[in-house]
From TrEMBL:
<keyword id="KW-0732">Signal</keyword>
<protein>
    <recommendedName>
        <fullName>YoaW</fullName>
    </recommendedName>
</protein>
<feature type="signal peptide">
    <location>
        <begin position="1"/>
        <end position="21"/>
    </location>
</feature>
Length: 145
């Protein structure tokens, strides 16, 4: 009986392990076309609470010969922005597969888009982004409590 319970706990924990942007539904929509760089402020990210996440899920179009860099940046008290997460996406990324999530602190955040390599003109990005509260999976053996 003890073996059975141990096996069930391990199996349930294995199938619910991991946290990625797939599990999140972000509140703000984005549909933009840009060449060079673009800055998008993230509203509602200066929250005075703990256990929040900030991130995005995007589809990237018209970037066959390009590298698009997306940075999640936080403003310091001095007014300068520091990159907390930098991800490079080469070419097109279908079905909102260009994604990232980080834990946030009560500060002002923004997304910084940059075309770094190749012939990049009129890159189109569509998807969702924003700040969301952390949700716990209480049925997972690996959940944080």
């Amino acid at each position: 009986m003890k073996r059975f319970l141990l096996i069930m706990v391990l199996v349930c924990g294995f199938f619910s392990f991991g946290s990625s942007a797939e599990a999140y539904s972000f509140p703000h929509k984005l549909n933009l076309t840009f060449t060079g760089t673009h800055v998008e402020d993230i509203p509602d990210s200066d929250l005075n609470v703990s256990n929040w996440h900030i991130g995005y899920k995007f589809t990237i179009f018209n970037a066959e010969n390009c590298k698009t860099t997306i940075k999640i940046q936080m403003m310091h008290l001095s007014g300068r922005f520091m990159s907390l997460s930098i991800k490079d996406f080469e070419g097109d990324w279908p079905d909102r597969t260009a994604q990232d999530v980080i834990t946030l602190m009560p500060r002002t955040y923004r997304l910084y888009f940059e075309n770094t390599e190749g012939e990049c003109k009129d890159i189109r990005i569509k998807g969702t982004y924003g700040a969301i509260p952390q949700t716990y999976d209480y049925f997972s053996a690996f959940s944080q409590r």
